[in-house]
Amino acid sequence: MRTLVSTLALALCCGAAGAQSLDAARAGTLKTVQGTVTVTNAQGARTVHPGDPVAEADKLLTGTNGAASVVMRDGTTLVLGPSSQLDITSFAFNGTTQKGNMLLSLLRGSLRMVTGLVGKGNPDAVKITTPTSVIGVLGTDFIVRATGGKP
Amino acid sequence: MMGPALVAIGVTVMALLAGRALPPTSEVLLLPQADGSPSSVVVVSGTDRQTLSAPYQRATAVQGQKPTQDSLDPLAVQHAYPALFSAMPPPPQHFTVYFEPGGTELTPASQADLATIIAAAQQRAGADILVIGHTDAQGDDGENDALSLQRAQQVRDMLLRDPQAVQADLIEARGRGKRELAIPTADGVAEARNRRVEIVLR
């Protein structure tokens, strides 16, 4: 019994550590980076490359010639078109229970989204806001565009 | 590099000076799902609520105006948003490796498959790998949860042994015990095809 308990404890400990390396700082991973793509947060701005992490509270900005794609940890795919700003307002995902939530804000430009596990489990858990609308998602591939207003 | 940016700023300034700055506008366009299954989005703009449930339907909300809905031609969509199609990452690749009973030793055939998986990871820009361990229906839940995670971590370690494959922080190991049997069996049944680790390369 003691062996089993210690095996379990070891497994849980390592599992938590292994998961943490991705959970803590990584909501998703950049896949495509075309043209000028910048990520900003409270720590400042950084240019990014495929494989780099994106986290909650990051803002993704693309230049006039820019485009980027991100796969979130739940499998949601985001593609950002040129001259766009997308804020990852909140993101949570538990890889074991496969539950979580995602709130994105497209301030300008264009976004394509193919939903992953978070949306499939609970559609209310995924929301995208634009300056004029709130979009609720029911397991989908779609495009959002926000234009006008302050650049 | 500076030319187009300056032109864009110039156009914006001219539009503002001319008093022709457009009011904030949002468009939502539903695309068909890759597997053909039905889907929908709900667009709430102020007190108005629109539902899109057919591919290529579009909802448009201009601030201060009543929201409208129309339908677009598929080719027109590709032309209007080329980057949203060209920058789409390739779909994830799935691999499965199998284990000898009761432990974390891969079958010889599956050990040989790891090289294929590493080669595939090197082909993908910004690859991250999800390694999900499973057991067969023998044994109790706690032991199976632990064993499935050990199997996932064993595969993660083996993938990391090749320093060229993928960075450690891009491989996540998970154990799901006997919750997702590949071959449904009664509890307590030993089934080789359930003693597996699934590898999602994305």
Structural class of chain A: alpha+beta
Strand order of the largest sheet of chain B: 6-9-7-8
Radius of gyration of chain B: 25 Å
Enumerate how many helices of chain A there are, as a single number.
2
Beta strand count of chain A = 12
Please tell me what the overall shape of chain B is. Answer: elongated
Q: Give the percentage of residues in beta strands of chain A.
A: over 45%
Q: Tell me the distance between the termini of chain B.
A: 32 Å
Radius of gyration of chain A: 17 Å
Chain pair with largest interface:
A-B, 64 and 66 residues
Structure annotation, total helices of chain B = 5
The description of the largest β-sheet of chain A is: 12 strands, mixed
Helix content of chain A: 10-25%
| Tally of strands of chain B | 9
As a percent range, the share of helical residues of chain B equals: 25-40%
Q: What's the SSE pattern of chain A?
A: HEEEEEEEEEHEEE
